Structures
1.
Amino acid sequence: MSEQKTIYILAIESSCDDTSAAVLKNDKVLSNVVATQAIHKEYGGVVPELASRAHQQNIVPVVDQALAKANIDKKQLSAIAFTRGPGLMGSLLVGTSFAKSLSLGLQIPLIEVNHMKAHILAHFIKDENMKSPEFPFLALTISGGHTQIVRVNDYFDMKIIGQTLDDAVGEAFDKSAKILGLPYPGGPLIDKYAATGNALKFDFPIPKVKELDFSFSGLKTSILYFIQKRTKEDPNFIKNNLEDICASIQYTIIAILMQKLKKAVKLTGIKEIAIGGGVSANSGIRKALLEAQSKYGWKTYIPKFEYCTDNAAMIGIVGYHKYLNESFTAQDVTAKARYLIS
Ligand code: KG4
Ligand code: ZN
């Protein structure tokens, strides 16, 4: 295959509650449209059946918008990339079936993508405001469903070296927010209130977990007991201390993440650190990683905000590299709710 050829990838992401489509020209993003499903707010979490139905409603307009924004006609596309997993089965099925039919209709290759790998490879999107890490690097992937430290040797050679034994970091944020009476998803709200709070006001325990693994369920329970006790003493406790509570929760979560990253650097000798996943939008973790550059001599990589939370551009960049590798997917592919990266 000629290096000079321009490759246009249409990418589709539908693993959870965001319907997204993107068009990439080689490793550059021409468009990245995300339709976030507001319906789940009323239920305090993602309702799988509603997510699947909303994906069905959104997918055609979202793909049309992505093509229109990129000013690309379907006939110009080189391949269709889609999220095969991990995620909610009903949601994944919508994107998978759509991608399969479109590739069949257009007679162009189909490329399946692992969502967690995409969060990591989002760092290779060519963008003037972003630089890419060098192999090998450590990726901290933190989302609503995952918390992993991955050793990334190459685009396609990755190994999980640490992960959560129970809740994901995003869940820790969202469940803490729920205890405080904040709507779903509460992560961004904790981040917002934490900005003006005193992080040292309240003390929450850092769990002792072996090696590079994580645990967040104990933290959630201790926050719940703390809030129950304090609101019994003062019914307005949350209202009067919201910023300080949020800042203290965020401080504890970041301390846990940084403690494990430091351990991972010590064990592997790798000081190139990249973060990915929805929680990497958190301003506290972004600040901690920036500070780690001068503090510990690490080189840290933080994706642009729109490539942190679920989006199809990250699916597209994996699609591009798989296209170069001629790693195509057969039409009998099925969605995979549990899909490990290594
Ligand atoms: O990667 P993502 O968009 O979806 C999954 O694959 O899970 O991550 C969503 C998670 C949610 O738990 C959300 O609360 C969290 O990312 N999140 C944040 C922030 N923005 C999104 N958590 C803390 N601070 C934020 N600024
Ligand atoms: Zn995600």
2.
Amino acid sequence: MVPGARLVILGRQGAGKGTQCMRLARHYVVPHVSTGDIFRASVKAGSEFGLRAEEYMLAGKLVPDEIVVGVVRERLCQRDARARGFVLDGFPRTAAQAEALDEMLGDEGMPLDLTIDLEIDEEDALRRLADRRVCSTCATIYSTARPPAIDWTCDNCGGEVVQRQDDTEDAIRKRLADYNELTTPLIDWYEKRDSLVRIDAIGSPDDVLRRLVSAIDSRKLR
Ligand code: AMP
């Protein structure tokens, strides 16, 4: 049995976090916990909570910390995450979220194995986001350069592959600006605790996955 892992993946929007987190979750047999996917699922379900989250998402704004922290706490307390670990994608994004995560994992006796910064510069990120397409059912990520095999129908589940509603130019710029201001400081924060590795996000998805797995496995063997 493959040992589990507790991982946080940071990186600008467009770095390929979603794609790599899905692959890492499969590799280590742990749940992929994407706060963006959780919010999109509640928007789709039309819940009260989803309607509130949607206002922030469409404007490219961050959902308030206390809401996001509550959602993550609930997810990480579930049995699969407790037993095997998790790949956290899109969380934490602010100092308050990082501190809340630290406290929650400390309380549960589940320390992080590693935090990874998937590095990409802003120009490449903008280009990738404009090209990004996503399955509206299972959230598998494609691009105009790597479309599904048949007519924008997801290879994985047959769902419709579309451009994300919040991948407009204005919302993308707002998300990247928030990343620079609020999330970049977390990279130093984790680095000071010796729990950060930087990985180059440029390359084929298979190459990037190999780099990630090798960094994670060597850290787990330390
Ligand atoms: P993502 O799929 O990670 O790009 O997230 C899509 C949207 O969900 C973001 O633009 C935010 O509005 C919201 N969101 C996701 N994760 C967080 C988070 N950790 N903190 C605040 N808002 C978030």
